[in-house]
Design brief:
alpha/beta; Rossmann fold; 8-stranded mixed beta sheet; 8 helices; 8 strands; globular
């Protein structure tokens, strides 16, 4: 067992997750890079180790109860606590296919595929619940654990109702709205234990999720995630933030 600070980032072999791993490792965390694919996960971890960071791949499929339980068991055999959990893994099946040549999302909600929606919820909503519950014993042994749920501007009902230019992506957007509610529920439960739980909106970032149509870099996107992951005692909990401050639910 070790007393060094440990962080776990899910869905971290590429994109925002991988950059978050890099940023936390640069702050001297031992970072567990959660990824379901062994080759991609270990390749990403090795590349970061080659940069001088203490990063280790952890087999973790957030949509699988068995995988999440096995990951928690593996971690518990190696470390005594998890100080930071970033629930980053997310999917948006069918999103890229619904983009017009100019990048506008053009599929109306009435035409969304319910199978895609179910898959989205399994990863984006139930995934963070599975992971948080499985790793809660390790989080509770940390003196000041932080949990960050990687949400989206599309999760804001206030923004969607007041902004006709906001893409009307029912499955993905509503999954992030649900994730916001889950963040608040966990924050209320865990506040007495000194665990802060917040949702982060990294902005429309160029990643595989949107065929790299986003206008922000992963470096920009990781800023608010890392900020919330490293909050000092007395910081906010049960909030929803981008890099400029609180967002409307």
């Amino acid at each position: 067992m070790t007393t060094r600070k440990n962080a776990l980032v899910t869905g971290a072999n590429k994109g925002i997750g991988r950059e978050t791993v890099r940023r936390l490792a640069a702050l001297d965390y031992k970072v567990w890079l959660g990824a379901r694919d062994a080759e991609r996960g270990e390749t990403a971890a090795q590349a970061l180790r080659d940069e001088g960071f203490d990063v280790e791949w952890l087999a973790l499929d957030v949509a699988s109860d068995d995988s999440v339980a096995a990951a928690a068991k593996t971690a518990a055999a190696r470390i005594s606590s998890v100080d930071v959990l970033v629930n980053n893994a997310g999917i948006a099946p069918g999103y890229v296919e619904a983009l017009a040549p100019d990048g506008r999302y053009q599929r109306p909600p009435s035409q969304e595929d319910i199978a895609h929606m179910k898959a989205t919820y399994d990863v984006n909503v139930f995934g963070p619940v599975r992971v948080t519950r499985a790793f809660l014993p390790l989080l509770q042994t940390s003196p000041a654990a932080r949990i960050v749920m990687v949400s989206s501007y599309l999760g804001s009902l206030a923004r969607a109702s007041g902004n006709s230019q906001s893409p009307n992506v029912m499955g993905y957007g509503s999954s992030k709205t649900a994730l916001n509610a889950i963040s608040l529920a966990f924050a209320r439960e865990l506040a007495p234990h000194g665990i802060m739980v917040n949702a982060a909106a990294p902005g429309y970032t160029a990643t595989d999720l949107n065929a790299h149509r986003g206008g922000r870099t992963v470096q920009q996107a990781a800023e608010i995630i890392v900020r919330l992951a490293t909050l000092e005692p007395g910081g906010p909990t049960g909030g929803y933030f981008d890099e400029n401050g609180p967002l409307p639910w």
